[in-house]
Design a protein that fits this description.
Length: 434
């Protein structure tokens, strides 16, 4: 599944035909939001001197629901998309992504949770995400937790979480069991410390153990007059087959918060893999703050990168401000990471950057511009092997209290030694907004 094979230039013009969102009146402890959009698209593609045209018709439906009563809490959010392509690239495809979480806490001492996750999964991350160029990965998960309070400032949580990855290909199936003991200590009203010990075991479809990761981590966080800071350091004793490695994990985060600006700097070093990514919201379950449904039902499809156990070092810097002018705001971000498959495989260097500008034309109308950049390299020196760029312009206007019109134009291109691609997209949406 190679997104960038061959030299290709592609232009896509997309327009929304009709869309609406409805909100149903429910009891105070529940909320339902539903949106649906019918759209049409026309595209022109050039590849190795040849060109072709295609038309698309489709529908995208988003559902979000939250419910809580007594010890029960239920949160779900799904997006379903249907597209049909005509002319040169005749065909149709279906996508659905989302998450369902149910938690049960009959008494403060005990809690339990169940969940289902389906995500778009790709062999590589890309800014130029192709709607049809990914697989869907499901995971079922469940767990139990025990909450203890040994002292006035001490809290201990013992949790056990299981995840089953589902796929038609048996080689891609597997399951994982993770157990953790979390000891939290309230140092003061503005500072706390945490000691976490855990073990994660993975098996393949034939119930053969593939890896074991024993971890020990010490963390500290503190509220500061102008923001907050946190840090952690730990050891990971990773075993796969006959190979063992001891790895250091660490993280440092600093946030500065002002009246009109916010800055964040972070460094994180951790082990990541596909099965863990598919269950990313389960092991960090907090019975006091359960995960909620997505606030924005129009968010982009989340993509999980298919990978083996990988050691990732990442540095990220972000800045956001409303001080440029009275009606505008802007944001900047940059990142650098190294990724290396444990025990084998080369190291990959990834560079990211972006900038955004928002302007409030009136109380009902907004204009936004965004630029994103990503580059991959196999060596730290010598420049990137591949670069991707994306520019997005969007406009929205609230026509009534529950009606909004939106238009966007997006232009993206990838540049590398043997591949160049250009994509343009135009969309218009009219809908009811919660």
């Amino acid at each position: 599944m190679d997104k960038h094979s061959g030299s290709k230039v592609r232009k896509l013009y997309q327009g929304s035909v009709i869309a609406f969102v409805c909100s149903i009146a429910l009891p105070a402890h529940s909320q339902l939001a539903l949106s649906t959009e019918v759209f049409g698209a026309a595209s022109h593609q050039q590849q190795e001197g040849e060109s072709g045209y295609s038309l698309q018709l489709g529908n995208t439906t988003n559902l979000g629901y939250q419910y809580s009563t007594g010890p029960h809490r239920f949160n779900t959010g799904y997006s379903i998309s249907l597209r049909r392509t005509y002319l040169d690239n005749f065909g149709r495809d279906t996508s659905y992504t989302g998450t369902t979480r149910y938690s049960y806490r009959p008494i403060p001492l005990v809690d339990a949770n169940l969940g289902h996750t389906v995500r778009a999964a790709s062999t590589e991350e890309s800014l130029l995400f192709d709607f049809t160029d990914y697989d869907l990965r499901h995971s079922l998960n469940g767990g139990i937790g025990l909450n203890l309070t040994p002292g006035e400032r001490v809290r201990t949580r013992i949790e056990l979480q299981g995840t089953q990855a589902l796929d038609e290909d048996l080689d891609r199936q597997g399951h994982q069991v993770t157990g953790r003991v979390i000891n939290s200590y309230q140092v003061s009203s503005i500072a706390s410390a945490r000691l976490t010990t855990g073990r994660a075991i993975q098996w393949d479809a034939n119930s053969k153990r593939t890896s074991t990761n024993d971890s020990l981590q010490l963390g500290y966080q503190r509220v500061l007059p102008n923001g907050n800071a946190s840090g952690n350091v730990g050891l990971n004793f990773y075993e796969a087959g006959n190979t063992r490695r001891t790895l250091v994990s660490a993280g440092v985060n600093r946030n500065w918060v002002g009246d009109i600006a916010q800055t964040s700097v972070s460094y994180n070093r951790a082990i990541s893999d596909t099965l863990t990514e598919l269950s990313f919201e389960t092991i960090d379950f907090d019975p006091d703050n359960p995960p909620e449904s997505p606030d924005d039902l129009e968010t982009e499809t989340e993509v999980v990168q298919l990978q083996q156990a990988t050691l990732v070092d990442a540095i990220n810097v972000a800045y956001r401000s409303q001080g440029l002018c009275e009606r505008c705001s802007y944001q900047l971000n940059a990142g650098f990471s190294t990724q290396r498959v444990l025990f084998s495989g080369p190291r990959t260097f990834v560079y990211t950057g972006g900038a955004g500008l928002g302007f409030r034309l009136s109380n009902r109308e907004n204009l936004n511009a965004r630029y994103q950049w990503r580059a991959n390299a196999e060596k730290l020196t010598g420049g990137p092997d591949e670069q991707q760029h994306r520019i997005n312009l969007s406009w929205d206007r609230r026509l009534a209290s529950q009606v909004q019109a939106r238009a966007s134009l997006e232009h993206g291109w990838a540049s590398e030694s043997d591949n160049n691609r250009t994509t343009a997209r135009l969309g218009v949406r009219i809908g009811l907004i919660n």
